[in-house]
Design goal:
single chain; mainly beta; 7-stranded mixed sheet; 3-stranded antiparallel sheet
Amino acid sequence: MLSASTTTTGSAGPSASTGPRRLIVIAPAAVSAHQHFFVTVDVNFPLQIRIPMGAVIPGTGHFHFFIDRPPFPPGVHTPDIGLPGIIHSITERTLIPGLDPGTHTITVTLADGLDDTSDEVPPVSVTVIVR
């Protein structure tokens, strides 16, 4: 759940490039059942990470994590309550709750100030095996 109006500056450090804008998602390859774990999102472009404020502001955004479900297409609003398997995040390092054993797909998208999926960068998926 998003709270406060804290902002941080998105990283454009070591992974910065002049190529197409993209998300870089880092997750553990395997974790124990029901163990919480972190997924880190980096970007290769300047981004101020902030909570949705009801307006699209260039250079700002936040992340949506879709766990074992397809991401919403660009321009579609992502509700922050009531839908299982969706996490909204205003941090580059996000805690994923413990998952049942099996293979899980986590897809990350950039979202804008209206809480809509952005078309600025394509979604990125990672696979995590839970033992």
